[in-house]
């Protein structure tokens, strides 16, 4: 471990430093979160696929055995029933406390741990804008939101400076889970430790202030912003918030209002009792969280929505065939790609959009070829007209990409396991052609 880092930790932790050194000998804490869009935490735990203990950081979270392997390819993971997440990482959304119906911006969203947690809390009535600046990471974010069945979301790939002016005054909640020096990730990621230096900490601090500067305009009056990092450095935590409060008298620091973790440092305008820190002595690898509220009015941007158009007959036929009802949904067609959601589709100016709503399918040769997201979405699960339940053996064949010799009505079908969709196939009456995405198949 880097000596300069350890010296700083000794100054920061004082009497708790020895306890911190002890935690470095232990494996990292691991956890998972039930996806409330699909399953409640008790039902997930009762399925008995892993030994789970309730997490102190979120009611939908669990701690699990740190030696457990292979959960990422478990069928419940594939079905989007849970998301694996370092336990303390769920604390920021607990403190943000998104409510059903809220509009939430997650400024630095990939790979989607917090976005998927927010989406589940705000439900189908709320709307999430999940933004990620890095293209490769944005695609991982999209696949996680797809697996967890999120429909009411817009996934953008932009810098906060580009995106935020278009969302001025529209958000009930904003999360800035900022890129940081990752001191809480040292046990998990060698790269974070290799990259560490005091200069890097300072560079991170400047970048964090810049992101906050962009993000704050998105909040409406009384809107709540949560700033979080997975690092311990005061320069990236209390000092960032102190600087921010000096520049923004329209923002007030709120008490995080939770029992887990411990108070932070009092620095300038930051009352340490109001912010929260989590160290490995607190059952998580490390997080800092500050909660702020906007107390003055904010001019609102006008969001442009996409006008509804008459749907081509093949789209109508597909939706009628596959769904019990879709009249309450908004349908959007762009370059032959069909998307669905409860909210109206939004049009941003010059912001790359990876996905909005459910990617339902694509028009190919006058018919709709459905997409995996259509069958995994939580919104459509109870509306699907054609479903078939697989047994364990059939499931194993399906995940390998094999055709299934099961008699079934002709056409596209959702394949289920233990009551939840796994994916889809196309039946000719006697055999179901496998449509499980090639990249997800087992070998
Ligand atoms: C701590 S991670 C986010 C983790 C995510 N919230 C989650 O829970 O899964 C920070 C993210 O910020 C992104 N990032 C890096 N530089 C950025 C910048 N200048 N502005 C906005 N985001 C940035 C990184 O690509 C990274 O995905």
Q: The biggest beta sheet, please?
A: 10 strands, mixed
Query: How many distinct beta strands?
Result: 24
Radius of gyration: 23 Å
| Strand coverage percent | 25-35%
The number of domains: 3
- Estimate percent helicity: 25-40%
Q: Could you say which small molecules are bound to this protein?
A: S-adenosylmethionine
Whole-number mean pLDDT = 96
Low-confidence stretches: none
CATH superfamily membership of the largest domain: Vaccinia Virus protein VP39
Report on the architecture of this protein.
- This protein is an alpha+beta fold and 443 residues long.
- It folds into 3 domains: 3-294, 3-Layer(aba) Sandwich (Rossmann fold); 303-385, no CATH class; 386-443, Archaeosine Trna-guanine Transglycosylase, Chain: A, domain 4, CATH 2.30.130.60.
- Helix content is 27%, strand content 26%.
- The protein has 14 helices and 24 strands.
- It has helices at 3-13, 17-23, 41-46, 75-78, 91-96, 113-122, 135-147, 160-163, 190-195, 198-215, 238-247, 313-322, 372-376, 392-400, and strands at 30-34, 52-54, 61-64, 82-84, 103-106, 127-131, 153-156, 171-177, 219-229, 251-254, 262-263, 276-278, 287-294, 304-305, 330-334, 337-341, 346-347, 353-356, 358-364, 367-370, 387-389, 411-417, 420-427, 432-434.
- Strands 5, 6, 7, 8, 9, 10, 11, 12, 13 and 18 form a 10-stranded mixed β-sheet that branches.
- The two termini are 38 Å apart.
- S-adenosylmethionine binds next to helix 6 and helix 10.
- Belongs to the class I-like SAM-binding methyltransferase superfamily. RsmB/NOP family.
- Residues 20-295 form the SAM-dependent MTase RsmB/NOP-type domain.
- The active site is at 230 (nucleophile).
- Keywords: Cytoplasm, Methyltransferase, RNA-binding, S-adenosyl-L-methionine, Transferase.
- InterPro entries: Methyltr_RsmF_N, MeTrfase_RsmB-F_NOP2_cat, MeTrfase_RsmB-F_NOP2_dom, Nol1_Nop2_Fmu_2, RCMT, RsmF_methylt_CI, SAM-dependent_MTases_sf.
């Amino acid at each position: 471990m880097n000596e300069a880092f350890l010296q700083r930790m000794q100054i920061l932790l004082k009497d708790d430093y020895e306890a911190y050194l002890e935690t470095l000998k232990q494996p990292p804490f691991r956890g998972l979160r039930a996806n409330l869009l699909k399953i409640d935490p008790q039902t997930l735990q009762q399925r008995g696929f892993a030994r789970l203990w309730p997490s102190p950081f979120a009611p939908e979270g669990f701690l699990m055995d740190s030696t457990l392997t292979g959960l990422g390819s478990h069928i419940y993971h594939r079905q989007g029933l849970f998301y694996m997440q370092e336990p303390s990482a769920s604390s920021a959304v607990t403190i943000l406390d998104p409510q059903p119906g809220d509009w939430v911006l997650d400024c630095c969203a990939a790979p989607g741990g917090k976005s998927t947690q927010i989406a589940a809390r705000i439900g189908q009535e709320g709307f999430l804008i999940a933004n990620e600046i890095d293209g490769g990471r944005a695609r991982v974010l999209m696949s996680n939101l797809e697996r967890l069945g999120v429909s009411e979301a817009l996934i953008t790939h932009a810098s906060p400076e580009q995106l935020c002016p278009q969302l001025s005054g529209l958000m009930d909640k904003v999360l800035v889970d900022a890129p940081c020096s990752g001191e809480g990730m040292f046990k998990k990621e060698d790269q974070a430790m290799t990259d560490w230096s005091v200069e890097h900490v300072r560079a991170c601090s400047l970048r964090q202030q810049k992101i906050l500067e962009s993000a704050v305009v998105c909040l409406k009056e009384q809107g709540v912003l949560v700033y979080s990092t997975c690092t311990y450095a005061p320069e990236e935590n209390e000092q960032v918030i102190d600087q921010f409060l000096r520049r923004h008298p329209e923002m007030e620091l709120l008490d995080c209002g939770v029992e887990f973790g411990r108070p932070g440092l009092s620095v300038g305008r930051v009352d340490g009792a109001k912010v929260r820190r989590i160290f490995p002595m607190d059952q998580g690898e490390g997080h800092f969280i500050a909660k702020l509220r906007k107390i003055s009015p904010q001019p609102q941007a006008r969001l442009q929505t996409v006008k509804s158009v008459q749907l081509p007959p093949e789209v109508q036929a597909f939706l009628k065939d596959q769904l019990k009802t879709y009249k309450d949904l908004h349908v959007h067609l762009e370059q032959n790609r069909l998307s669905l959601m409860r909210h109206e589709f939004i049009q941003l100016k010059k912001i790359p959009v990876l996905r909005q709503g459910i990617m339902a399918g694509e028009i190919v040769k006058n018919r709709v070829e459905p997409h995996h997201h259509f069958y995994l979405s939580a919104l459509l699960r109870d509306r699907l007209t054609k479903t078939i339940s697989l047994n364990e053996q059939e499931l194993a064949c399906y995940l390998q990409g094999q055709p299934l010799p099961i008699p079934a009505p002709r056409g596209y079908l959702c394949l289920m396991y233990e009551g939840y969709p796994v994916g889809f196939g196309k039946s000719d009456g006697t055999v179901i052609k496998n449509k499980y995405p090639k990249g997800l198949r087992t070998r």
